[in-house]
Specification:
Layout: H1 2-26, H2 32-57
Protein backbone atom coordinates (compact mmCIF):
# COMPACT_ATOMS: atom_id res chain seq x y z
CA UNK A 1 0.00 0.00 0.00
CA UNK A 2 2.98 2.29 0.51
CA UNK A 3 3.73 2.28 -3.21
CA UNK A 4 0.14 3.25 -4.03
CA UNK A 5 0.30 6.10 -1.52
CA UNK A 6 3.58 7.35 -2.97
CA UNK A 7 2.18 7.15 -6.50
CA UNK A 8 -0.82 9.24 -5.45
CA UNK A 9 1.46 11.83 -3.86
CA UNK A 10 3.46 12.07 -7.10
CA UNK A 11 0.28 12.44 -9.15
CA UNK A 12 -0.97 15.17 -6.80
CA UNK A 13 2.33 17.04 -6.98
CA UNK A 14 2.36 16.88 -10.78
CA UNK A 15 -1.23 18.14 -10.93
CA UNK A 16 -0.36 20.95 -8.51
CA UNK A 17 2.63 21.95 -10.61
CA UNK A 18 0.50 21.93 -13.76
CA UNK A 19 -2.08 24.12 -12.06
CA UNK A 20 0.63 26.57 -11.04
CA UNK A 21 1.98 26.65 -14.61
CA UNK A 22 -1.48 27.29 -16.05
CA UNK A 23 -2.21 30.13 -13.62
CA UNK A 24 1.11 31.74 -14.52
CA UNK A 25 0.40 31.31 -18.24
CA UNK A 26 -3.17 32.59 -18.28
CA UNK A 27 -2.97 35.02 -15.35
CA UNK A 28 -6.64 34.34 -14.82
CA UNK A 29 -8.12 31.98 -12.26
CA UNK A 30 -11.35 31.88 -14.25
CA UNK A 31 -9.71 30.55 -17.42
CA UNK A 32 -11.31 27.21 -18.42
CA UNK A 33 -7.96 25.39 -18.44
CA UNK A 34 -7.17 26.59 -14.91
CA UNK A 35 -10.61 25.60 -13.62
CA UNK A 36 -10.35 22.18 -15.24
CA UNK A 37 -6.91 21.53 -13.76
CA UNK A 38 -8.10 22.70 -10.36
CA UNK A 39 -10.89 20.14 -10.56
CA UNK A 40 -8.39 17.42 -11.50
CA UNK A 41 -6.23 18.32 -8.51
CA UNK A 42 -9.26 18.38 -6.19
CA UNK A 43 -10.30 14.91 -7.32
CA UNK A 44 -6.81 13.49 -6.80
CA UNK A 45 -6.70 14.95 -3.30
CA UNK A 46 -10.15 13.52 -2.55
CA UNK A 47 -9.04 10.10 -3.77
CA UNK A 48 -5.93 10.28 -1.61
CA UNK A 49 -7.98 11.27 1.44
CA UNK A 50 -10.51 8.49 0.88
CA UNK A 51 -7.68 5.97 0.62
CA UNK A 52 -6.18 7.24 3.86
CA UNK A 53 -9.52 6.99 5.66
CA UNK A 54 -9.95 3.40 4.49
CA UNK A 55 -6.53 2.47 5.84
CA UNK A 56 -7.30 3.97 9.25
CA UNK A 57 -10.66 2.19 9.58
CA UNK A 58 -9.27 -1.30 8.92
CA UNK A 59 -9.31 -3.43 12.06
CA UNK A 60 -6.04 -4.80 13.37
CA UNK A 61 -5.70 -8.54 13.28
Amino acid sequence: MVKKSMLMKVRIERARNRLHTLTEKHRNFQHPAVIKQSMVLDELINQYNRTGEQQIKKPIG
